[in-house]
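FORM 7B: Structural annotation worksheet

SECTION A. Query
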Amino acid sequence: MNKHVHVIGGGLSGCEAALQLSEMGWKVSLYEMRPIVQTPAHQSDSLAELVCSNSLKSFRHDTGAGLLKAELELLGCRLLEIAKEHSVPAGQALAVDRELFANAVQERILKDDNIRLIREEITEIPDGTCIVASGPLTSDRLMANLAQLLGENQLFFFDAIAPIIDADSIDFTKVYAKTRYDKGEADYLNCAFSKDEYLDFVQALLEGEKHEAREFENEFFKELNFSFYENCIPIEELAKRGIDTLRHGVMRPMGLEAPGSDDKPFAVIQLRAENKDKTAYNLVGCQTMLRYPEQRRIFRLIPGLENADFLRFGSIHRNSYLNAPTIFNPDLSLKANHEVFIAGQLAGVEGYMESIATGLLVAQIISGKLKELPKETILGQVWRRLTETPQKGRFSPVNANFGILPAGDTRMRDKKQKRLLLAERSLDCLRAQLGQIT
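SECTION B. Predicted structure
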């Protein structure tokens, strides 16, 4: 057997797949088009760059993201190990120093004798075993080649990212550190709004001048219909849904009273550290398609950010994904070419950890190490969602959530306890399959 594989894309899924296959004795040619061809969203040439946020979501087993992490630990996920090594305080979530994390992944790849990193754009699928992990920002020419191979239209959606500000420009006489309901360390900074401040902020969002979608289209994509994925909706679009939408959602104030005070804020925007030194903070939930001058004006209406210095403005970019259930075999290879496998967001998953998970999944399928996963696991259900025709409606990106798991005891009223039991069931089933019962 020729144990050589092409991996197209040096993002999260591509790097995880490359490291997995290398450990199993495969020779890997890993292709990354940056810096030869840049994207509208990346800020560097590093492998495994986190574009939208530095958060990989919760560790808690009563969340889909936390259960997925626990399953990936059992399966030997390499990027999860690296993420933990370069984490920054984020309460019960896993957030990383983007630069340190990306540098560590790249160093691991470069030191691996079985992996050859090739900096060039791949415009056609190569012969032999191949993993296409080119991500939601797949180049136009490779996307056109995939469309020709698959013989059908693709699905697309827009994604938006939040601004990052300089910590030195935050007014700490107004902004305070606290975690919701004082659970865990006070890793988040909180900007509290009065009712009038909130109403002014929402009105400014509604009136702000935005980038138009056409700025991110071109001749190849202009005939397609675009929409936002629900988890990535810009804050100004959420504001259109109603005056209270934000304060009942991303700006929910419950449990975030200022230390030493019983006064309940009307709304709160949280800031999350971007790096270990806490010199930069991300405006949580403030992904946006506002024009840069408008971002500076409107986000400075946030209490404590009146003099905010923006290290990176929010932006909008096109994300691409394939109509997975119609084109995938059960092993995530293409029906049109059984040697070509798809991983990452291009495969139709949403989220950093989900992208990493599909890289691991495809690598272990190719190597013969993994043939199936228990239906009780989050990853097993994500796998099924990518290969089984949706019961209703068109296919849309899938992420880790308890709604995709088989039901447990429906009589149990305690939602958290029910989820913990489902998580325990999942991990027990996975350990049993892996022969890890002690």
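SECTION C. Observations
Confidence is low (pLDDT under 50) at residues 214-226. Residues 415-434 form the longest helix (20 residues).

SECTION D. Sign-off
Analyst initials: ____
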